[in-house]
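$ ./design --mode recover --in tokens.txt
reading tokens...
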């Protein structure tokens, strides 16, 4: 949790309005993705992550049924080789800006999970807190802030959480 007192956070802080704008935009994009990823959640669950460097958009990633060696490094076991949205976005960003530049930049990751509302065709937000493997990738790449959606079923509203690098240890 960011309590607003962290000064290294303030340097590249997104306004609440801007964060919401970005999350809404990602929600629209996620709705256009073909359902992929975790079929135990009904197959209608879609996850998208975006990376911003110095407040500028760099790239998206989404959960995918394509395997990738990069994901294997961060999977929970040898069989978990499918790209997660976060590792997908990280891999793309490394390709675009280079590993070293990525690591030393002020980076923010936005993550949105959408899921079908029960008995409805409507999509609502789901909890998109990164899994352990993605958290490791986030720490490795020194991503400073992570903004992720909370479960709309639980909160009753479209709410999100901000984690800083410090929260990840
Ligand atoms: Zn993950």
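writing sequence...
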């Amino acid at each position: 949790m960011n309590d607003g007192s962290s000064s290294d956070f303030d340097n590249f802080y997104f306004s609440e309005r801007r964060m919401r704008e970005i999350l809404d935009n990602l929600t629209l994009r996620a709705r256009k993705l073909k359902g992929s990823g975790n079929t135990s959640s009904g197959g209608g669950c879609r996850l998208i992550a975006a990376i911003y460097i110095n407040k500028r958009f760099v790239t998206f990633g989404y959960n995918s049924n394509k395997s990738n060696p990069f994901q294997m490094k961060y999977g929970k076991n040898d069989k978990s080789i499918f790209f997660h949205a976060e590792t997908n976005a990280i891999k793309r960003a490394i390709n675009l800006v280079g590993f070293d530049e990525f690591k030393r930049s002020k980076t923010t990751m936005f993550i949105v999970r959408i899921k079908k509302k029960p008995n409805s065709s409507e999509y609502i937000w789901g909890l998109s807190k990164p899994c352990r493997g993605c958290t490791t990738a986030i720490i490795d790449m020194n991503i400073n802030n992570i903004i992720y959606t909370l479960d709309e079923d639980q909160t009753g509203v479209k709410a999100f959480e901000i984690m800083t690098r410090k929260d990840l240890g």
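exit 0
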